[in-house]
Amino acid sequence: MVQKALLKFPKLICSDIEFTLPKPNYTIETLNHLICCHANVSFSLLIGEDNLVNFNKWKEYKNILKLVDLYVYPRKHRNKIPKHLLENSKIYLLDAPKLDFASSDIRKKLKKGEVIKSSIPTSTMAYLEKNNIYK
Predict the structure, then answer these.
(1) Which residues pair with 73 in a beta bridge?
(2) pTM for the whole thing?
(3) Does the 10-98 domain belong in CATH 3.40.50.620?
(4) In this structure, which of 10, 22, 37, 70 has its CB flanked by the most CB atoms within 10 Å?
(5) Could you give the CA distance from residue 134 to residue 108 in angstroms, rounded to a whole number?
(6) How far apart are CA 59 and CA 35, in angstroms?
(7) Which DSSP string do the residues of 76-106 spell out, in sequence order?
(8) SS3 7
């Protein structure tokens, strides 16, 4: 589904590499693996603002920031983010519309048969309908 949603964004790549790595798997391990396999590629990490609130509790979070820039999609958690993270030069808070729904909300609505076409890309919705996902 992510691949479908990214069709309009050729610079973004969806990877399923985490499914092939040993469990439990942590972001730092995924990044190390990707960098090892693709030494000439520059990687970035995109997370939601809600994840940035606890980012300093992630395994080796300081090393993550040494490896990649962190881009943060806005949610409604700005006032909960630790100050030292807000001031970090490797963390970029994106200026984007705050969406009033979460992926869990979308899944619940799909299971109830509610129409949510305005919430997700058309290509993703077509994929969900074609494959009877969440029904």
Answers:
(1) 48
(2) 0.75
(3) yes
(4) 70
(5) 8
(6) 17
(7) S-GGGS-HHHHT-TTEEE---PPPS--HHHH
(8) coil
pLDDT in tens, 9-32: 888 888 889 999 999 999 999 999
List all residues 6 or more positions away from 91 whose beta carbon is below 8 Å from its beta carbon: 52, 65, 69, 70, 72, 85
Q: Where are the domains of the chain?
A: 10-98, 101-135
Alpha-carbon torsion, ordered 36, 13, 43, 35, to 10 deg: 0
Counting beta carbons within 10 angstroms of the beta carbon of residue 72, is it exposed (0 to 12), middle (13 to 18) or buried (19 or more)?
Answer: buried
Q: What is the 3-state secondary structure (H, E, C) of 46-76?
A: EEEHHHHCCHHHCCCHHHHHHHCEEEEECCC
**In one letter, which amino acid is 83?**
K
| CA–CA gap between residue 37 and residue 56 (Å, rounded) | 26
Residue 40: C-alpha distances to residues 12, 29, 51, 62, 112 (Å): 16, 18, 28, 22, 45
Q: What are 27-61's pLDDT values in tens digits?
A: 999 999 999 999 999 999 999 898 999 999 999 99
